[in-house]
Amino acid sequence: MMHEERQQRRSRPRSERGYFLIKADHVEDDAWMSQPEAARYLGIALTRVGMLIANGHLVPAEDPAGRAGVTTASVEAEKTWRANATVRAKFTRLLKDTINWF
């Protein structure tokens, strides 16, 4: 029973769940990707997706149903950046992101 209630709460739009931590644009289904899908596509942990959103590397978005996710364009841009960035660029980004957390 607890699991079913939790699933029902998750399937409701974020506005009905009572939190607005990050402003997210509403986008069409084809321009939206869930955070777990983005994590799988990028080959990273789900918590890392949250960090990328917090640091502005992924753009938060809601689909027409109000579910939280990210834009597919930002995920594609991140994948391209990861494939082409030098070790120095990756280190610099990590350093900047770490400083932003403080």
Number of helices: 6
- Please give the number of β-strands: 4
Strand percent estimate: 5-15%
Number of domains: 1
Query: Under the CATH scheme, which architecture would be assigned?
Result: Orthogonal Bundle
Rg over CA atoms, rounded to whole Å, is: 15 Å
Going across the biggest sheet, name each strand in turn: 1-3-4-2
- Spans of 5+ residues with little confidence (pLDDT < 50)? none
Helix content: 55-70%
CATH topology: Multidrug-efflux Transporter Regulator, Chain: A, Domain 2
Instruction: Tell me the name of the CATH class.
Output: Mainly Alpha
The 3D shape can be described as globular
Protein name: DNA-binding protein
Keywords: DNA-binding
GO molecular function: DNA binding
Protein topology:
Elements: H1 2-11, H2 14-17, E1 25-26, E2 32-33, H3 35-42, H4 46-54, E3 60-62, E4 68-71, H5 72-84, H6 87-101
Task: Please explain how this structure is put together.
The chain is of the alpha+beta class. It has one domain: Multidrug-efflux Transporter Regulator, Chain: A, Domain 2, CATH 1.10.1660. 58% of the residues lie in helices and 11% in strands. It has six helices and four strands, in the order H-H-E-E-H-H-E-E-H-H. It has helices at residues 2-11, 14-17, 35-42, 46-54, 72-84, 87-101; strands at 25-26, 32-33, 60-62, 68-71. The protein has a four-stranded mixed beta sheet. A hairpin with a 5-residue loop joins strand 3 (60-62) and strand 4 (68-71). Helix 3 (35-42) crosses helix 4 (46-54). The model has no long low-confidence stretch (mean pLDDT 83). GO terms for molecular function: DNA binding. This is DNA-binding protein. It comes from Streptomyces werraensis. Keywords: DNA-binding.
